[in-house]
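assembly run, all chains below
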Amino acid sequence: MSNKDLLGRRNFIKGMGAAAGVAMAAPALAVSESANGVKWDKEVEVLIIGSGFAGLAAAIEATRKGAKDVHIFEKMSYFGGNSAINGGLFAAPDTPMQKQEGVKDSVDTMVADQLAAGRGIADEALLRHVAEHAVEALQMTLDAGSEYHPYLQQLGGHSVARTYQTTVSCGAGITQPLLQECRKLGVHTHNRAKFDGFILDEKGGVVGVKMREGYYFDKPESGELVRIKARRGVIMATGGFAQNINMRMAQDPTLTAEVGCTNAPGATGEGMFEMFRLGAVPVHLAHIQSGPWASPDEGGFGYVSNYSIYNFPHSIAIDRLTGKRFMNEIADRKTRADAELNCRDAQGNALPPILITSYEDSKQHPNTKKVLKYNVGWKFDSIDALAKHFEVPLAPLKKQIAEYNEYVKTQSDPQFGKNMTEAKGKFIQAPFTVVRLWPKVHYCQGGVQINTKAEVKDSLTGKPISGLYAAGEVCGGIHGVSRLGSCSIPECMVMGMTAARIMMQA
Amino acid sequence: MKMYKLMLGLVLAGLVSLSAQAIEQRDYHKDVIGKDCKSCHDQGVKNYPSDQACLQCHDVDELAEETARSEEDKWQNPHNNLHYGKELPCIECHGEHKAKKPICSNCHTFKYDKHKE
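ok done. output:
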């Protein structure tokens, strides 16, 4: 791809940066210090940093395993981190709903699907550990009151339908119940509390942290510094760095401030970087995933993302220049994001492709109403009207739709090899709903290396750093090149639960 | 000396009231709060009001009722929203002296017609 293409991409995204809230102040310098002679301001039993899926699951599990004094610290003014604003999609093998729908699945199959998308560099042991415990994590959400759509979805790269989605089609359908469960269990939750470095014993183990209380995200120097002792240890559940423009550009210079991002503004990675400074092993930092289901017509994750995720299996994605399909609509995320970025006009400027779905099928998902109501998706009564609106060449488009409908009938896609199981009987026919697609930065596959006990490995000794655990997106290397959709929530929760279990056994 | 202090005090008071006059303030707040900066700025005048400051007078449950939307869009209620329930601190969306965009607009195109931006 030429520089010209990249400029086109930049120009196109210009103006979206502000909407996505990507502006960010430089984080203040945090650094570890020795516990020798430290005057502790507070002492807690279990200290968790970050209040997304991983942190909340860790807090609940620690309490269930007998911890009496569990504290979650969150730097933002609100709880839930990035977990509160994503799709709420949860993949697990051998679930009750799969039995009900007659879907044959196993831990092995789920791991194999993820290894394929990981393109040879995923961590099989960790993927297996997460798949084996995913149903337990799903149960934790159900026990806390999460509700799910009464059907499974087959997301890109998954060989079978294994994905649950909350009825509110958002991760908040999990974080809110888990947060309330935490409070019910007596977990102490602190907002505006910014992690500011580790406190170490003479052997280099983590025995506490520095924290700035009363922290305001837009005032990097704010907050009163306190030193908090953690009797059992510290669980870092601080997420990725997709909103840290400098860091993501250091890994991939094309991911400028002008490229859209689905993440919460707090996803800036200081917790991860402080672990690197302590000696944690950095893994796969350059593998930053863009979501191929995002829309250039709204900021962040918005309404379209879940609309597209649900509809991809029975929809066609069309290059507006050619009027033809250009990808397998349920390939893994990287394959699709790369294909979309190649959709350009004759001058090389971005020409966001369109996703065409029969209204008959799209209306099954609650987000369809929203995308139409808020003008981020459109409805058409004929191919002609649709083609005219998006300036797509009509004849090739009609031919493509007719060909694709044959694939639906024969259950085989010779054009791009799409798995047509979920498209069965779902022909592309009027009336249609259409959204525009353009990838947005979504997920950091990179982070600190952990083992299946959620322990953080030291790069010099090769041994776990005592007193330190990590869970969720802050960890790296688990998924390899491309994480499959709906595999982060189970990973966050299982590793959060694992960290709590191991800590309580230690 | 005493005189000097008194003068200084008067000058400072004048400055404070001047700046209080110059800043943007909602009419209904002018009536109730007047120029007493500290009634909101409970963490010092240079700092944001604490997350409890507005709650001295405003009740979240009442606000949530006032801004309730239809069943279909019920989670767009800014005071009881999908992502954070009733817990989002007021200053995430409201600025007394400087208009602010609601946090929802980071990702969504829906509008709050009465919200001052």
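Residues 2-22 of chain B form the longest helix (21 residues).

The two ends of chain B are 48 Å apart (CA to CA).

not gonna interpret more than that til we talk
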